[in-house]
Predict the 3D structure of the following.
Amino acid sequence: MRKKLIGAAGLLAAGILSFSGCGAQAVALPHDNQIHPEYNNAYVKELFYRNDLGTAAPDPCVIQITDPESTEYGYYYLYGTTDPNSGFRAYRNKDLTGEWEDVTPIKNFLAFEAQAGHYAYGKGAFWAPEVIYDGMEEKYYMFYSGMVEKFPSIGQEQHMIAVAVADEPYGPFQPVNATQAGTLFDNDEMCELIEKDGLSSGVTPSGKKFFNCIDGSPYVAPDGTKYLYFSHEAVVYGGKSEIYGVEMETWSKPDLSTLTRLTRCEYYTVDGEWQDAEGSNKPSYESGNGVNEGPYMYQKQQADGSWKYYLTFSINGYMDKSYSVVQAVGDTPLGPFRKLTEEEGGLLVSTDWEKFDHLSGTGHHSFVPVDNELYIVYHEHVNREMGGLGERDVAVDKVVFTKNGKGDEVLYCNGPTWSLQPRISKYSGVENVAPQAEVTVSQGKNAEALCDGLLSMYTNNTFVKEFETEKTATITLNFADYRELSAVMVYNSKTFEKSFLSVKRIELDCQDAEGAQGVAVIEDLAFDWDFYKMASVNAMRPGGSAVAVFRPLLCKQIRITVEVPEERPEDLAIMDEDGYILKQSAVAISEIVVLGK
C-alpha cells in the first residue's frame, strides 16, 4: 500500500493497526515502500539517508567537535579541496549523513586563506586539508598542500605540505610559521632522504632537484605518539606516488630520523617480495598509473592487548572511474605494511573494476567514529557514469570489522552506495534490531549471512556471503520479547540472476495498543528495479533493498517469504549466452535490517 510521502509522522498517521475483535486473523499492514519517482524519489529522512551528493568538497576530512568549551561542540566539521586557488572553507552538520552547511558565509571568512608571504600565495593548488584536534593544547591543526613553484616549460609543479593552527574548527587557521608561512619539510633534506630509498627527485629546467608531497594526514597512536602520513607525489614528473610516514616531535616539527616509506606502487610490499596465492607480487586492483595517495590510519586493539594498524589510501588517480580506497595492514604505525589482496578484502571502497554505472571515482577519505559505529567519508564524481575532471561531492557509508576468508580481521565497507541506508542510530532514535533476533529458515543456505551486518557488494569478494535458496523459503526472526518496530529492509542480491523481483510476503506477529494480538501482513513488497538495475546490461547496482516503513508497532516475530522461481517480465529476463530465456534457479538475499527500539 503506497501513500504520498509527507514525512514520518504525516505519512503513517493514516493507519493505526488494531486487532481488537478479529482474533488471530491477518490484517493488511499500512506501509510505504519508499518508491516515489513522482515525488523526485523522496524518502523518510527521519529513518534513512542516501548519497545523492550535493556538497562539493573533494578530498574530504571530517572531525567531530568534542571540545565542550567550543561553541561548535557536537557538530561534525567537513574540510576539503574547496577553494584551490586561495585556501579552504569549512562545512558543518550535526548528524554526519545530512545536508552540510557552509560556515564561510556565517563567519565571513574562509577556514584558511593564504596571505601575502605564504609560500603558495598566488600560486594555488591548495589541496586536501586534514584537521586534527589536540586536546592537550586545545588547538586545531590543519595540514594541507600548496604549490611552491610551476615549471611551464616542462609541465611540472612542486607541491609541499604545510600546517596551520586555530582555536576553533571554523578558523581562521594561521600558518604555524607565521613569519615565513613556510613548508613543513626542507626541500634539499627531503630530496637527499628519498634518494636513499632509491626514489628520484624532480628536476627543474635549471637542474635543481625538488621534493614534491601532498595529502598530509595527522594521527595519534594509542601510546600518544604523533605521526604524519603523506604521499610523495612523483607522478607529476613521470614517477609514482608512494605513501610515507614520519614521527612528529610537535605538529610542526617532524623527526626525520623516523621517515619511512610505507607503500610501493603496484606492489603488495615496499620490498616487492610478497606474493599472493596466484604467485603474483602485484595487486590486481592497481591499474598501472602509479598512484598511492590520500593516506588515513586506523587501528584496532587485539585480544592480547596489542594493536593492529590499518593504513588506508587511494589508488589509480582521482580522475579515473577506478579511483578506490584500499587497505594495508601492519603491526606498528610505521609498518612494515602489506596491502591485502582483493580476496582478502583489499578493496575497501571501489566501483568493482569500473563495473558500476552509478558510481565513479570513489576515493580520498577519512573515518569518523560515532559511538560504537564507524563511518567512512569519501568523494565521488558527480558525473556518476563517466567521472573525469568534473565536480566531486561527498558521500558517507558504514564500515565494520569482519573476518576474511583467512580468518584475519579487516575493515569492510557497506558501500559505496547510492541507495537508501539506515540513518545513524544515534540520530534516528532507532537501531537495527535484526541481529538481536533468533534467525531460522525453512530451507536454504548461509542463514548466518542474513543479519551479519555486511552488504554484499563486490563481484570477486567470497568471504561476504548471501543467504541463498533454490525453493520458496520463509525466513523467521524471533525476538525474546515484543519490540517497537518502524521499518523492514530486505537487501537484494548483488547478482542479477539470483535477485528477487519482490518480497512475496512479510508477516509480523504483533500486539496493538489494547493488548490484542494478531498478524500484520505485507503482500508483494516491491523492489525499485528502475533504480537498482544497471541501465544498459542485466546487472545489479548493489546495496539496494525492498523497504517497508510503517507506524511503530509492537512485534515479537517476523516471517519473510521469498518465492522461487519467480515469473520475470521480459525486460528482467535471465538469458543464456545464446539469448534464450532461462528459468530462475535460485534467490539470494544480502541482508535483513529491522529498524526499531
Notes: Residues 1-14 have pLDDT under 50 and may be disordered.
